[in-house]
């Protein structure tokens, strides 16, 4: 679910409010140019999280489906409805019915985590 949250917030150009803010190397260099030293311990070198091996396939396919969201336009802007499951099935064509069912279940979990963020709902 962390992968879906990270992707959705990045897609909207936002930071996840559940993650602590930290300085990256570029910001530390900007401070240094202004004469402000930033202790090395306060610089985050990567925005990482772990994806368990058992979830790797679902996360990889979720990211492959980045352009396969069903979206409607209304007076409030775009509203994301969910993934296009027929496109998802095409991506994994040739897999067994059981593998597809398991993958679809995992994709729905990732989709459910990303949808409120994509639609700008408070998290």
Shape: globular
Sketch the topology as an H/E string, one letter per element: HHHEEHH
Based on CA atoms alone, the radius of gyration comes out at: 18 Å
Q: What's the story with the biggest beta sheet?
A: 2 strands, antiparallel
What structural class do you assign from the helix and strand content?
mainly alpha
Poorly predicted sequence stretches spanning 5 or more consecutive residues:
none
Helix content: 40-55%
InterPro entries: Phage_TLS_TfmB (IPR014915)
Protein name: DUF1799 domain-containing protein
Organism: Roseibium litorale
Give a quick rundown of the structure.
The chain is mostly helical and 123 residues long. It has one domain.
Description:
Pfam families: DUF1799. This is DUF1799 domain-containing protein. InterPro entries: Phage_TLS_TfmB. It comes from Roseibium litorale. By secondary structure, the protein is mainly α. It has helices at 2-11, 25-33, 56-64, 85-91, 97-118, and strands at 69-74, 77-83. The protein has a two-stranded antiparallel ribbon with strand order 1-2. Strand 1 (69-74) and strand 2 form a beta hairpin.
Give the helices and strands, then pairings.
Elements lengths: L1 H10 L13 H9 L22 H9 L4 E6 L2 E7 L1 H7 L5 H22 L5
Antiparallel strand pairs: 1-2
Any descriptors?
globular; 11% strand; single chain; mainly alpha; 2 strands; 123 residues
């Amino acid at each position: 679910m962390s992968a879906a949250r990270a992707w959705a917030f990045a897609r909207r150009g936002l930071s996840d409010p559940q993650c602590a803010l930290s300085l990256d190397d570029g910001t530390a260099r900007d401070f240094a140019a202004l004469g402000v030293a930033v202790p090395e311990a306060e610089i985050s070198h990567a925005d990482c999280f772990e994806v368990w091996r058992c979830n790797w396939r679902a996360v990889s396919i979720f990211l492959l489906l980045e352009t396969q969201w069903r979206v409607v336009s209304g007076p409030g802007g775009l509203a994301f409805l969910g993934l296009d499951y027929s496109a998802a099935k095409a991506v994994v064509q040739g897999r067994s019915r059981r593998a597809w069912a398991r993958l679809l279940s995992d994709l729905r979990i990732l989709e459910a985590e990303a949808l409120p963020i994509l639609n700008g709902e408070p998290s």
